[in-house]
From TrEMBL:
Entries under SUPFAM superfamilies matching the protein: L domain-like
UniProtKB keywords: Leucine-rich repeat, Membrane, Repeat, Signal, Transmembrane, Transmembrane helix
Species whose genome carries this gene: Panagrolaimus davidi
Name under which the protein is recorded: Uncharacterized protein
Entry annotated with the keyword Metal-binding: no
A cellular component term, taken from the record's GO annotations: plasma membrane
Keyword Transmembrane: yes
TM region(s), chain numbering: 391-414
Pfam families per UniProt: LRR_8
Length: 445
């Protein structure tokens, strides 16, 4: 049932006796108050979902929802309500209610809403509340009655920081939306959420991401921080989330630096369990090779960056065909296109538009053109080292040359030696003959 006209109240009487109301929506209504027995009278006990969207609503009578004995989902959207007591959110309502949407209301304090009887609540939407700085200064925390809560939406509530212990009673919370708030650091309040699996921080004011004050969380699997003012991701920023699987950081237009040890992989070699990664449409010139074990990631989105095609990026360019590169995010300038994702299930689009933005000689050159050739090291088959059998030949030739040189020098020396020896032998015989002749003459007068 959908009331598209401007209803003045919710006192809608259905004449058809066998008609069963399951879902009822009063959208864009001019309802100013909700009073007992004036909301779908006679059909309350079959209604499972009730949506009332009206800017004029300022008053709700106590016990107005008590007759809705099957109600699982209640939405009071965009009203002028500033508080709701436990006489409205009664024990009778809490017995069945699983989902509560109080988005775009005028609540300024968390204590303005009494959740004490909503013990079965699984999903709570407070998007667009006016909490502002009160969330950081107020000692209020979500009550123990919400211990079964699994999804909490606190987007666009205007707070810069969170009271550290605000979530201390939400022991089963799995999904937390803190998007569109001017948060400047990763909130340490998540330390009180041991079951947290999904954290959304889109459009925040976080500039530098690190793990300062963040305790180990073994259950976190998905972190989304897109369209923010993020500029740097520092050493061990994700070390507190060892089992993270999905990391989407697209459209952070100032993000220009990622420390190679952001996951701890570069230093300790422990590979994170990342399955889906996106740093698309950021300002990255280089992506560190040691950041992750890239071949084990099922989908990688890195398009739209200012890649500097030097040797620091050669690992990516030369190995582009071995990586699971896809488009996980479509920039508005690229038009509306569906993409494939193991988490979103759309048709796969292989990323084929990666190109260099520098140096000048490679500007606008696609990775595929220079893949396999950028800063390529010579393989052993093409190295400058000389094979062993060639070395032996070179040594033998050198020995022969030296032998020839030695012979060429030694032969003249040897000839000179023989001539000198011959002359030395001839001189004594000549002297003896002269003496013999003299003696003869002396003996013959």
């Amino acid at each position: 049932m959908n009331g598209e006209k401007n209803f003045q109240n919710a006192n809608v009487v259905i004449l058809k006796p066998n008609f069963v109301v399951k879902n009822a929506t009063f959208g864009r209504a001019d309802i100013t108050s909700l009073k007992n027995n004036t909301i779908l009278p006679g059909r309350e006990n079959t209604t499972e979902q009730l949506v009332i969207s009206t800017r004029n609503l300022t008053f709700i009578e106590n016990g107005v929802f008590n007759n809705f004995t099957a109600l699982k989902s209640l939405s009071l959207i965009g009203t002028n309500l500033t508080n709701i007591t436990d006489e409205v959110f009664t024990k009778e309502l809490g017995a069945t209610l699983i989902e509560l949407d109080l988005s775009f209301n005028e609540f300024k304090l968390l204590s303005s809403i009494d959740f004490s009887h909503l013990t079965n609540l699984k999903t709570l939407n407070l998007h667009g509340s006016k909490f502002g700085k009160n969330f950081s200064t107020s000692p209020s925390v979500f009550p123990k009655s919400l211990a079964n809560l699994e999804t909490l939406i606190l987007s666009n509530c205007g707070f810069e920081v969170l009271n550290t212990s605000i979530f201390e009673n939400l022991l089963n919370l799995k999904t937390l939306y803190l998007s569109e708030n001017p948060l400047k650091t990763m909130p340490t309040a998540i330390n009180y959420l041991p079951s947290l699996q999904n954290l959304y921080l889109e459009t925040t004011s976080i500039i530098i991401l690190n793990n300062t004050g963040i305790k180990m969380n073994q259950n976190l699997e998905k972190l989304v921080l897109t369209n923010s003012r993020l500029e740097r991701i520092e050493d061990c920023a994700f070390c507190s989330f060892p089992n993270i699987k999905v990391l989407h950081f697209w459209s952070n237009l100032k993000l220009s630096f990622i420390d190679e040890n952001a996951f701890g992989f570069a230093k300790n070699g422990t590979s994170p369990k990342i399955e889906s990664l996106s740093f698309e449409h950021c300002k990255l010139e280089i992506i560190p090779e040691k950041l992750l074990d890239w071949k084990n990631i099922k989908e990688i989105g890195i398009g739209g960056n200012n890649f500097m095609c030097n040797c620091s990026l050669s690992w990516l360019i030369n190995g582009i065909d071995n990586l699971n590169l896809v488009q996980l995010y479509t920039h508005p300038s690229e038009g509306s296109r569906y993409h494939y994702s193991i988490y979103y299930g759309f048709e796969e689009i292989r990323e084929n538009n990666l190109q260099c933005q520098g140096p000048m000689a490679l500007n606008k050159i696609h990775f595929s053109i220079i893949s396999g050739n950028l800063c390529k090291k010579k393989s052993p088959q093409h190295s400058d080292s000389v094979p062993p059998h060639h070395v032996f030949c070179y040594v033998l030739c050198a020995f022969i040359v030296l032998l020839i040189i030695f012979a060429a020098i030694s032969y003249p020396i040897y000839q000179l030696y023989l001539r000198f020896k011959k002359n030395k032998t001839a001189t004594p015989f000549s002297y003896e003959n002269n003496n013999f002749d003299g003696d003869s003459e002396a003996n013959n007068p």
